[in-house]
Write a structure and sequence with these properties.
The structure is a single chain. This protein is mainly alpha-helical. It contains two helices and no strands. It has one domain. Helix 1 crosses helix 2.
Length: 76
């Protein structure tokens, strides 16, 4: 897998993993302020979710890279 294909696979995996990680641990606030959505999370912890997403994606990308290197899937 060349550099461009590897980067593309990483970005696609990252977005897919992000959408699975985003709902983790979300709780609505106990007291909703005026003008705020009632379903908005009280503490979204986005930095932690981005870090978890990047770590999980790195592991998944290494697995995909090994599958491509061993010829089980080809991007040609």
């Amino acid at each position: 897998m060349n550099l461009y294909a590897g980067a593309l696979v990483f970005v696609l995996l990252w977005w897919t993993v992000l959408f699975t990680v985003l709902p983790w641990g979300n709780r609505p606030p106990e007291k909703v302020e005026s003008g705020h959505a009632t379903s908005a999370p009280a503490k979204p912890r986005l930095a932690l979710k981005f870090a978890v997403t990047t770590g999980v994606t790195a592991v998944l990308w290494l697995i995909v890279d090994q599958i491509v290197r061993h010829g089980l899937i080809s991007f040609k």
